[in-house]
Amino acid sequence: MAEKVDHIGIAVNNIEEALKFYRDQLGLNMNGIEEVPEQKVKVAFLPVGESKIELLQSTDPEGAIAKYINTRGEGIQHVALRVDNIREKLAELKAQGVKLIDEEPRRGAGGSQIAFIHPKSTGGVLLELCERDT
Ligand code: ZN
Fold first, then answer.
1. Confidence (pLDDT) at 134
2. In the chain, what are the domains?
3. Residue 96 CA to ligand 1 centre (angstroms)
4. I need a surface site. Which of 30, 47, 54, 56 has the fewest CB within 10 A?
């Protein structure tokens, strides 16, 4: 079962610039900026109630976020759903023929385990599954 929307991932050219709106003008709190080398991104999480906004800035021109911004510009890049057991969920989806980008979970920000589901199976949305303790 998916528990909730864990976060909404927004691709930005520059996190510091984006924080001028999300933190300074909108007034959200920011938990700090973390680099995730595996994903070639820097991320900032801003809690909104039980969910978060995740700002993503590419650290590599070949990274997924850089490619996304090149073709589509800044904007919502993915939606992440929290699950209890990501391995079990991935196996269930795979068995049903859902097109997965990651068949095995990989490391996400904040010690989470994440995996992406292909937009071809989700109505055009890049969907992330996310398992984390807190
Ligand atoms: Zn994410």
1. 66
2. 4-131 (3.10.180.10)
3. 24
4. 47
